[in-house]
Design brief:
- The chain has a single domain, classed as N-terminal domain of TfIIb.
- A 3-stranded antiparallel β-sheet has the order 1-2-3, with no helix packed on it.
- The termini are far apart.
- Helix content is 41%, strand content 12%.
- The chain has helices spanning 19-33, 73-98, and strands at residues 46-50, 53-56, 62-64.
- 7% of the residues are buried.
- It is an alpha+beta fold.
- The chain is elongated and about 65 Å long.
Length: 99
């Protein structure tokens, strides 16, 4: 008897589109469907509402993020840069107030 492959989420594609595309589809779908931690209350209750819109089931916090993950590498870098700029500007304002 022949064995059948376990295809999972990509089963609807059958033998079409190639193995790499089907693997990437499964990877993105699994990532978008799993629960993520909320940036506000830190609970694992964030779910995707639609493309790029994420919402926490506990505190109701709604925010934007990536299409398949609540935070992207570019977003993390931008947040880090912005917080550095904010700290730097706070430092100069404090110096101005003291003089």
């Amino acid at each position: 008897m022949g064995r059948t492959k376990k295809v999972g989420l990509a089963g609807g594609f059958k033998a079409r589109y190639g193995a790499t595309v089907r693997k990437r589809y499964v990877e993105a779908t699994v990532e978008s469907r799993k629960r993520h931690s909320c940036p506000k209350c830190r609970n694992l209750t964030v779910k995707r509402q639609s493309i790029g819109i994420w919402s926490c089931g506990k505190c109701g916090f709604t925010f934007t993020g990536g299409a398949y993950t609540p935070s992207t590498k570019t977003g993390i870098t931008a947040k880090r840069t912005a917080s550095g700029l904010t700290r730097a500007s706070l430092g100069t304002n404090e110096m101005d107030n003291q003089v």
